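Work Package 3 (structural annotation) set out to generate three-dimensional models for the target panel prioritized at the project kickoff. During this period the team completed the workflow that converts sequence records into discrete structure tokens, so that structures can be stored uniformly alongside our sequence database. As a representative example, we reproduce one entry of 155 residues exactly as it appears in the project archive.
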Amino acid sequence: MIRISKKTEYALRALVEVSQQSQVHPLISIHKIAQSTEIPVKFLEQILLTLKNAGLLKSKRGMEGGYSLQRSLEQITLGEILRIIEGPLCEWPCLEKNDREACPCPDKVLCPIRLSFEPIFLQMNKILNETTLTQLLDKISLLKSQNQETPHYII
């Protein structure tokens, strides 16, 4: 149901990088983000501008400039990020708007799409709308710590 583009992948990588770096540096430069995330600078510029215009990031120009989060990590959800970058998560209006009247089917009550996919879409939406950047960063930190705890020996 969800098609995640390279642009969304890069947006998530960039937001994670800005979030992690914000704990150490108030602003992170676009070149530092690009280097750390391996995102081409020109593409990253477009993504960061989109995220800034949507109110997730703020920026400061100049030699000491860069990007930082506009809102707290707890206020930014994966669902919001996906919708900013990809647009609506579903092409079926009766599902995306959760409105039977928006359904294009002749018999709105017996819409096979809505009847089949509504439970899946509602659950997916719930998860995306409740998963915050904080939770994503916690998962990343946990995985990093687990990888560091397991020594790798080459004999």
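The two ends are 46 Å apart (CA to CA).
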